[in-house]
Amino acid sequence: MSGYISKSKGDNWGTPKNIMDNYQGYFDPCPYKYKDDGLLIEWKEYNFVNPPFSKLKEFSKKIYEEAKKNKKIVLLIPARTDTKYFHNYLLPLNPKIEFIKGRLKYIDLDNTAKKPLSAPFPSLLLHINF
């Protein structure tokens, strides 16, 4: 997954604390080293999702399925609004789009980087079913 964050050797990039603090109590279907596969389990009523960047398409499809069950979802993703998964699965849900100013400094959960690294892409939050 080194194509997304320079110097990255893994796919496990944690949500910056300043964002995560806003969603305390939300279910995270894909936390670091989670025992269940977030793509296969039933999600809760309120969910915060920062999916592995290598599985954005798969998680977008799962978000579409869970949103159709009226689940509330906040999704943190790279602002790649030109992708097929964005147009096929996320945009049809009519999300509230929250653009994030500046580049996020994701937390390296695999300890392959000595400090949080700025993403080389813009990020956004999608608020679905709120």
Task: Tell me the layout of helices and strands.
Elements: E1 13-14, H1 17-20, E2 46-49, H2 56-67, E3 72-78, H3 84-90, E4 96-99, E5 105-108, E6 117-118, E7 123-128
Parallel strand pairs: 2-3
Antiparallel strand pairs: 1-5, 3-7, 4-7, 5-6
Helix pairs in contact: 2-3
Explain this structure.
The protein is an alpha+beta fold. It has one domain (13-128): Rossmann fold (3-Layer(aba) Sandwich), CATH 3.40.50. Helix content is 18%, strand content 22%. The protein contains 3 helices and 7 strands, in the order E-H-E-H-E-H-E-E-E-E. It has a 4-stranded mixed β-sheet with strand order 2-3-7-4, covered by helices on one side. A 3-stranded antiparallel β-sheet has the order 1-5-6, with no helix packed on it. Strand 2 (46-49), helix 2 and strand 3 (72-78) form a beta-alpha-beta unit. 28% of the residues are buried.
Short description:
The chain is an alpha+beta fold and 130 residues long. It is built from 3 helices and 7 strands; from the N terminus they run βαβαβαββββ.
